[in-house]
Amino acid sequence: MTIRRIHAGELALGLSLPWDVHGEAGGLLAKVGHVIRSEHQIELLLARGMIADASDDERRPGTEAPSALRMLNRATSGLALVLPAIVAGQVVAQDQLAPLAQLVEEAVTLDADVALACILHNQGAGDFAVRHSVDTAVIATMLARALKLDDAALRSVVLAALSMNVGMLARHAHFQHKADPLDAQERAYIRAHPQAGVDLLRAAGVTDPAWLQAVLQHHENVDGSGYPLGATGAEIGVGARLIMLADRYCARVSRRSYRKPLLPNVALREMLMAEKATLDAPLASLLVRELGIYPIGTFVKLLNGEIGVVTRKGLSAATPHVQSLIGPRGARLDVPLRRDTRVDLHAIREVLSAEQAGLQFRPDQLWGRSARV
Predict the structure, then answer these.
(1) For 319-351, how does the pLDDT look when each residue is reduced to its tens digit (9 = 90+)?
(2) How far apart, in Å, are the Cα atoms of 114 and each of 10, 106, 172, 310?
(3) How high is the pLDDT of residue 141?
(4) More confident residue, 294 or 63
(5) Which helix (H) or strand (E) holds 22?
């Protein structure tokens, strides 16, 4: 156990302290469980606070501190084994997918901001076909909770997100690396994959109608232009609508072999503008409220010239909290600086790609222990 200062990413408005905080002379500044109510408190704790860090002990078997990133990586590695087993006809779906869905739900509960950051900054964690399903499940979980779906309905949505593409698993890598337009046979294969997925899940023992409906309908559009059934409006279940939104966003911000990912704000704008007629408008608005105009993990440049990463949601969708890693003159900062973008000087000037930002960092440097590998 070591005594250290608090990292800026470990504090945010509304969060409760996971440890006692002492001053340099040993006096107690704040007790564990204290809820941070102001920026002034954060500044005080960062300037004067010291904590006892048990990170060395946490690395021992059986004593790991909870990590949302680690939970999602476990879900990804587990799904990489379960989905091929379903395709092979093994009756494993319900028993082996349920623990993976629980991992996703627990990761979002532990730290939703870290779970969202993983979509942009953990893309090397597994094969795209599997990792994309986990990413989609993260956002679907957040949306389902925002709608206050009951536990059973929430679990059906998460399970459907994890298994939505099992019907095209055999050729998913082919489509991931294909830059040329699809031919007629490939288009037919893709349009058939929702029904193929339902057939595989039924053969694997899935009987939950909400789960199966969401897999079948996750490419349907409210205007009837989707597939495989051309369902419209209320014919499409809420689970499918949530997964469709999450699926489209995650696909756009993911790096492909043949194209760069879209900037997160551009991905949202493209969905809401170019595809407006195909979306459930209230749920699309909910997606923006949950992600913000600048989703967690977005690289940004501030008006004062600093470059950093959006690390927490703010009081509005347009004013998130940022941690700056590069100063106004282009030099790397020794310690990340927490910025409230409601302040004029720290307002967001523009969104940057990873290449433009040129930043390398460990997730736990910005988000603390819940982002440890």
Answers:
(1) 999 999 999 999 999 889 999 999 999 999 999
(2) 11, 12, 27, 11
(3) 98
(4) 294
(5) strand 21-22
Strand order in the sheet with 2-5: 2-5, 50-53, 21-22, 28-30
Please report where in the chains the tokens 């736990």 appear, as a residue.
Answer: 364
For 235-250, letters b (16+ CB in 10 Å) and e give ebbbbbbbbbbbbbbb
Q: Is the pTM of this model over 0.70?
A: yes
pLDDT value for 62: 53
Quote the CA–CA distance of 28 and 22 in Å, as a whole number.
4
Burial class (CB in 10 A: 0-12, 13-18, 19+), 76: buried
Q: Closest Cα partner for 282 from 318, 238, 313?
A: 238
pLDDT mean over 264-287: 94
Residue 81, token pair as written in the block: 């084994």
In terms of DSSP bridges, do strands 321-326 and 307-312 run parallel, antiparallel, or are they unpaired?
Answer: antiparallel
| Location of structure tokens 């929430």 | 154
The one-letter code for the residue type at 295 is: P
Interacting residues of 28 by C-beta distance below 8 A, sequence separation 6+: 20, 21, 22
Higher model confidence: residue 226 or residue 54?
226
